[in-house]
């Protein structure tokens, strides 16, 4: 960061940023001292990697035994001799588990069938909990052993640690809620309101922007009011975001705005490996080496995929000894030969995804941009970088990647997000609203064709159900303090039935610019959350809400549903009037775990 202000808090604080990636994970942290400029540091020593100098990442892998106990985690899970022990004792290897937490709209049957399954006795929240517990142990051990007075430092600050958890751009409140539950189960925080507030979330795209500000944006990149696209290409997802600077005065904090709806695509590096597996499964189906398929794919993943640079050169996967030969399948001296063009095919879906996503960002962006910054572990692939650059450059884009450790981008960036808080305006990814009832209009063709969904309300009017009332349209720039609201009402025959308000917030992820009805493109409406508000105190104010209808008296409560989307987490407020005075109550937001 060109200029970082001193920490202005009133007490010393420790903040840990956990980046749980699909294939690798990392930890960054900062000790915030009042009046001192914060410094971002990384955990660079992990169990089973003590002799690896400066290692900042561990594999996101857990081995469970038959009763669901974690037996080996991280680098320990890939240590020599452990594979044989796991085979002998029937342990279950769990990897790529992060992708099991994806939103409901992304839970395609095809993708689910290609992912390694979770143990039958473990939920995704439990697996995350075990891994977060391990990361906390690693951070605690590292800080206690490497800092002066480390044990005293941890004893003092450990009980009140604040956490920053990064997640893909496509994750929303439901996934954040499950991550917070995992943090509670892991012992990171207590299950109290104050404990839950110690967990903060940041998208991987926004974290990558913060990292890039320190490690890779050219000086002229953000001049003249233009923006920059950040592509975080990781193990599981490719996250694309676009930002522009809103203040040019270098003597003050640099403030940014998001300028296009962030994107999240399941086309990270593991999908190159899945492409290789699909090809090798067919290629070796009649081979005597078919039983070595898992080992061959593992060797491809660790060597061939990382080194691939030229589609014109044959590629070799070394997996066995010089005695392993099968000329008809291209196996000689323990090496499997694959044409370079075939390996290039494994990469092509990811390359096309990045190119099309950048073009989509440009199309939807509120400001122009020409620089595209690639970060994340997958961006270390020279083939990916070169192909993306060669494709986008003729279209006016300049593709760059930072020289520093690309796989540290999210963990360090998440820590910078907490300290520097550069982004103050974000863009809505979808259209958000609530299904409501609307007055029947016999002159409106849409109403006439839905007359079967009409009913007579307590007020005596004919209404139609399931009209979509938009609170926030897609691709709207939202400042952190901006509120979006809509007027609704609840009518009940008795006041007792107005003691609790339960409303639902929905998001529309389809292509319609202005979605209007639930029965049109029904599959692209997803319930984001349920909002519950206690209104029991209104029972004594019944006369204020009493109305007369054709069937007798009834009670109507007019309310505003107020949503704040500009923060990294959705905030909701329920607003109504008592004696003409607006009252507000923080709403209890309940997320559907499948949302």
Count of all domains: 4
CATH topology of the largest domain: Nucleotidyltransferase, domain 5
Total number of helical segments? 13
**Gross morphology:** globular
Question: Cα distance, first to last residue?
Answer: 37 Å
The CATH architecture assignment of the largest domain turns out to be 2-Layer Sandwich
Q: Which residue ranges are poorly predicted, with pLDDT under 50 across at least 5 consecutive positions? A: none
Briefly, what CATH class of the largest domain?
Alpha Beta
Q: How many E-type strands?
A: 31
Output the radius of gyration: 27 Å
Q: Overall mean pLDDT score?
A: 87
Percent of residues in beta strands? 25-35%
- What structural category arises from helix and sheet content? alpha+beta
The CATH fourth-level homologous superfamily of the largest domain: ATPase, nucleotide binding domain
Biggest beta-sheet profile: 8 strands, mixed
The helix content is 25-40%
Features:
single chain, alpha+beta, Nucleotidyltransferase, domain 5, 4 domains, eight-stranded mixed sheet, six-stranded mixed sheet, 13 helices, 31 strands
What does this structure look like?
The protein has 13 helices and 31 strands. A hairpin with a 3-residue loop joins strand 1 and strand 2 (24-32). With 595 residues, it is of the alpha+beta class. The protein folds into 4 domains: 13-204, Nucleotidyltransferase, domain 5, CATH 3.30.420; 210-266 and 350-427, 2-Layer Sandwich (Nucleotidyltransferase, domain 5); 269-346, no CATH class; 431-590, Substrate Binding Domain Of DNAk, Chain A, domain 1 (Sandwich), CATH 2.60.34. The strands form 6 sheets. Strands 10, 11, 12, 13, 17, 18, 19 and 23 form an 8-stranded mixed sheet that branches.
